[in-house]
Design goal:
Length: 121
């Protein structure tokens, strides 16, 4: 079913009512360190982005951090349908920093964009 332009615009407007929080989306710039590596500098590229952050219901597991088993909890960030975000970015929400693991943005008639995140400790 194809939605009319007017109907899709209304659905997108309605979806924005369900983004109660704000976050910052960071991008990285890599510069040579002169020794064959690079230094990463993260910049606050998009600030005060309307969003909603919720725990992902299915993706919990274990990983290794500093030779210790730690729980991995994934989160789902919902932003406006036209917000720029990709797997090279980081998100700061309520003082916590997350990496973007993957996006759900391939469906038609998109009213929002969802990014699956992993919190950095």
């Amino acid at each position: 079913m194809n939605l009319s332009t007017v109907a899709l615009a209304q659905l997108r407007s309605d979806a924005s009512d369900y983004l109660p929080d704000t976050c910052t989306i960071k991008t990285v710039a890599k510069t040579s360190d002169g020794m064959g590596g690079w230094t990463e500098v993260w910049s606050d590229t998009y600030t005060s982005v309307d969003c909603r952050l919720a725990p992902e219901q299915t993706a919990q597991g274990e990983g290794m951090t500093a030779a210790q088993i730690t729980a991995i909890t994934r989160w789902v960030l919902t932003v406006a349908h036209d917000q720029v975000i990709d797997e090279t970015m980081r998100v700061v929400h309520s003082g916590e920093t997350y990496e973007v693991a993957r996006l759900d943005d391939t469906h038609s008639n998109r009213t929002a964009k969802r990014a699956h995140l992993v919190r950095l400790d």
